[in-house]
Design goal:
This protein is α/β, with parallel strands linked by helices. The protein has a single domain, classed as Peptidyl-tRNA hydrolase (Rossmann fold), CATH 3.40.50. The chain contains six helices and seven strands; from the N terminus they run βαβββαββαβααα. It is globular. The mean pLDDT is about 90. Its EC number is 3.1.1.29.
Length: about 200
């Protein structure tokens, strides 16, 4: 099956750019809003990637089953993420459909994953910024469910996503499954990968 981000038909050194969204700084490292950072960190760990500064971001190169993949963690803060993504995409000569953005999604329960191409931002400012900077919403997304405040929790959603996961929510398993999903997307393409990623319920 031909995958749209393979290099055979274009002048690029990489097959795919995987962007993890989050905020820089130790105080944000374990928050729900930073789950995108956590996922690309896990991918770098698995595949021996080393981080370096470039494009106003942290960048690492890895190989997944022989495919060359760039990992990116914007250091612009969430609302300006696109300012790092657009120059990286231009540098690697990648079309938007060869860019996969991994981000927290409060409209999905904790642990649920959803892969898709394009669509709206659902109020996510990082996604808005990436779409604006690329000039299109037509890029891949892996939405990682972080849930919403439970009944009786009066925190605004903005405060909720900037808080850490609860201990019972097993963030390590969530991050591992999301990293698995990125590898599946790279190997199989969106159409086939959606069947297993979107249809799988959160682990108990």
């Amino acid at each position: 099956m031909r995958l749209p981000w393979r290099r055979e038909d274009r002048d690029s050194s990489h097959d795919l750019l995987v962007v993890g969204l989050g905020n820089p700084g130790r105080e944000y490292a374990t928050t729900r809003h930073n789950v995108g950072f956590m996922v690309v960190d896990e991918l770098a760990r698995r595949h021996g990637g080393s981080w370096r500064g470039k494009f106003g971001a942290q960048l690492a190169d890895i190989r997944i089953e022989g495919h060359k993949v760039a990992l990116l963690k914007p250091e612009t803060f969430m609302n300006l993420s696109g300012q790092a993504v657009a120059p990286a995409a231009a540098y690697f000569k990648l079309k938007p459909e060869a860019i996969l953005v991994v981000h927290d999604e409060s409209d999905l329960e904790v642990g649920r994953l959803q892969a898709r191409l394009g669509g709206g931002s659902a109020g996510h400012n990082g996604i808005k910024s990436v779409a604006k900077s690329l000039g299109t919403p037509y890029f891949l997304r892996l939405r990682v469910g972080v849930g919403r405040p439970e009944r009786g929790d009066r925190r605004p959603l903005a405060d909720y996503v900037l808080a850490a996961f609860e201990s019972h929510e097993d963030v390590e398993t969530l991050v591992r499954r999301a990293a698995d999903a990125v590898e599946t997307l790279d190997a199989e393409g969106l159409d086939r990968a959606q069947v297993s990623i979107n249809g799988r319920p959160p682990e108990p």
